[in-house]
Amino acid sequence: GIFELDRTLEGVQGQIWDRVNGYKHWKGELAKNEDGLEKFAEGYKIFGFNRVERGYIYREWLPNAKQAFLTGEFNGWSNETPLKPEGFGRWCVELPDKADGTLMVPHRCQVKVRIETNDGQWIERVPAWIKLAWQDHKTNLFNGVFWEAPADEQYTFRHPRPEKPTNLRIYEAHVGMGSDQPKVATYADFARDVLPRVKRMGYNCVQLMAIAEHAHYGCFGYHVTSFFAPA
User: Fold this and answer.
1) Alpha helix (H) ranges present in 36-158?
2) What Å distances lie between residue 45 and 41, 49, 109, 152, CA to CA?
3) Which one of 111, 150, 198, 210 has the fewest beta carbons within 10 angstroms of its own beta carbon?
């Protein structure tokens, strides 16, 4: 095996086998309880905010919760919107549309989930499957943002998908650092200033770093805080 090919690994065989066996264990658990890794990876179809008939349902996995509440600007950051347990660590709350057809939680509304743990602690968390998070620069804390843009605000692609290249030439980039100015560059800056250069140099693929939201900018995006929210 690899230990015969690389004798320097002999001293860390234990750690390597721990990881291999851990992988096999969790792969087996997901196959047994979640119908496989692929099905498990589609958790966004169950958790977070999902549209149902005449409203939304918000679901979170909170295995250590005694009680939980969806709180935010829509209810004055109160505990008026409790989640109910569904078993197996799942909690949910139905958010029916208002009588006039508008959403109970409006587009761009900031939210959090407030939890009392089984040992009596009260904590607040950004919903794990949130699509956007905004940072309060006074406290440096993040709030989740309910992002369900109306049709007239949704982006529509104006150009066809490029043809798949025969061979890849990959340019790795960090949007926020893609500027010669002392600032955090924007996606618009990157499209205007960097992409033309990438194309001119003959690259046909761009690999962007730090897409998922992260709390500490100096981590280059490795300390992810919201996997489904673009930074």
Assistant:
1) 37-40
2) 9, 9, 21, 24
3) 150
- Residue 77: name the closest of 105, 40, 56 by CA: 105
CB 97 within 8 A of CB 107: no
Q: How many CA atoms lie within 13 A of 26 on its CB side?
A: 7
Let me know: does 23 contact 30? Beta carbons within 8 Å.
Answer: no
Decide if pLDDT at 5 tops 90. yes
Find the helix or strand (DSSP H, E) in which 30 lies: helix 13-33
Overall pTM surpassing 0.70 (yes/no): yes
- Here the tokens at position 182 are 């002392």
Q: For residue 143, what are the β-bridge partners?
A: 134
pLDDT digits (tens, 9 = 90+) for 159-171: 999 899 999 999 9
**Using one digit for the tens of pLDDT, what is the confidence trace for 207-229?**
999 999 988 777 888 899 999 99
| φ, ψ at 78 (rounded to 5°) | -100, 180
**10 Å Cβ neighbour count for 200?**
8
Chain position carrying tokens 């095996």? 1
What one-letter code names the amino acid at 182?
Answer: P
